[in-house]
Amino acid sequence: MTPAILFAHAGPGSTWQAMVVVAGVVLTGFLVAAGLGKIHIERADDLVVPLASTAIVSSLGTIAHEVVSDGIGWALPLAVVSLLALSLGAVTGLDLRFPSPLPMGAIALAGVSAVVLYAPLTIALHPPAELLPLSDDSAITIVEPIDGGSADGPVAVTVEVTGGSFGPGRVPLDELPEDPEEAGTVSVAIEEVREDDRITQQQLVGVDHPPHCTVADPCEQLTFDVDPVPGTYQLTVEFVRGDGVPLAPFVRDRITFTVE
């Protein structure tokens, strides 16, 4: 799976990111409370209430995930460092009260890592909209195969775009139209859906644009083949700028089909 499919500003991924943001704040609060002697964490059983409370409260982050998820860059380091410090205190019996080395070091590490890693984590996991070209009215549809249908391999996949167009694919930015939705291309991924719910890896699918789709004379439909082994698959097609950069918000379609 490509980052373009996984992450976007207030798009796919923002829900779990919002939960991590809330969890980071709550876990840091428990670490500070332990440092002040308000709670005692001296053995593994003492983690039950903090972790259960964190899980419950973090679920509330999904209510405003579009806004809360913006804090993933600083909250992820807070969550990781605080959870590690609390776990060490519970498992090893190290003193978590200030000014013991464990809480002091954890607070310092959490603060420094939140500042240092904020920019790279935000760009990697939650790129702001201003970093991505904006989509306006474009939409992409997987015409064939139909969702829930079946076909013999290799399977011909046909996609159609409205409010935009397809160019030759992977064109340098300086050769593209000013409108990011014109002369675009696609990012395609396929993943097996197993009945036993085992996790499978999503595979990227290469797409060759037909020669008649050009920057000067783009087209509105693409057809390409996928040839997986028999099974049930989820196919994700994302419409992106002609140089492969994703649009914000995402423009994509997804279906599930079976290969006989």
Characterization of the model:
It is a single chain. This protein has 260 residues and is an alpha+beta fold. The chain folds into 2 domains: 3-131, no CATH class; 139-259, Sandwich (Immunoglobulin-like). The chain contains 6 helices and 8 strands, in the order ααααααββββββββ. The strands form 2 sheets. It has a 5-stranded mixed β-sheet, with no helix packed on it. Strands 1-3-6 form a 3-stranded antiparallel β-sheet, with no helix packed on it. α2 (14-35) packs antiparallel against α3, α2 (14-35) packs across α5 (72-92) and α5 (72-92) runs antiparallel to α6. The two termini are 24 Å apart. Mean pLDDT is 89; it is low at 1-11.
Structure in a nutshell:
The protein is an alpha+beta fold and 260 residues long. Helix content is 33%, strand content 22%.
